[in-house]
Amino acid sequence: MATLVGVVILALALPAWAGITCVGLVRARRENGGLPRSPRRPWSPARKSAWLAVLAFGGGGALHLYGMSYLPFLFPEDACWFGAGVKAYPDSSGTLPVSLVCRGVEIVPWWVNPGLLALAVTGTTATAVSVTSAVRGGRRARRVSDQKTVPGT
Fold first, then answer.
1. Residue 35 and residue 145: Cα distance in Å, rounded?
2. Which end of the chain, N or C, is less packed with Cβ atoms under 10 Å?
3. What is the DSSP string of 98-139?
4. Cβ neighbours for 142, distance < 8 A, ≥ 6 positions apart
């Protein structure tokens, strides 16, 4: 378990911390040094919700892999040994919902499956919002451009 936490820290937390630090330094240098602002367009609601969907689905995938790390693969009796301290074959196991039962005790943490559900709902909702925002934004832009080209207005 400690090795898994270390891998998560090395693979996710440290690069995220380095990226946030780098962005903060660039912004501080830009504000203090009088550098011009970057020529980026502001984020539209469709783009924001698309990024939220990507993060939710990515987080759900990572959480599902974490939950699957408890399941037996090559040596089923070792899954119960590492999870519950009992050298026995699991009573049952499943990948969705993630479950491993050894001698009547659930080994997978209780928060894995509700977390998967919450991230799946968030990702699906954000995808739907992104698509509808993009369609409405495109219609609105066409409507504005049509009004500008109509003579007499």
1. 34
2. C
3. EEEEETTEE-S-TTHHHHHHHHHHHHHHHHHHHHHHHHHHHH
4. none
How many Å apart are CA 55 and CA 12, to the nearest integer?
Answer: 13
Nearest to 68 by CA among 18, 11, 112: 112
H helix or E strand, kind and range, residue 15: helix 14-33
Q: Which tokens in the block code for residue 62? A: 């990572």
Amino acid 152: pLDDT = 56
What is the Cα–Cα distance from 98 to 69, expressed in whole angstroms?
Answer: 10
Q: Which H/E stretch holds residue 10?
A: none
Residues 41-54 have pLDDT tens digits of 777 888 899 999 99
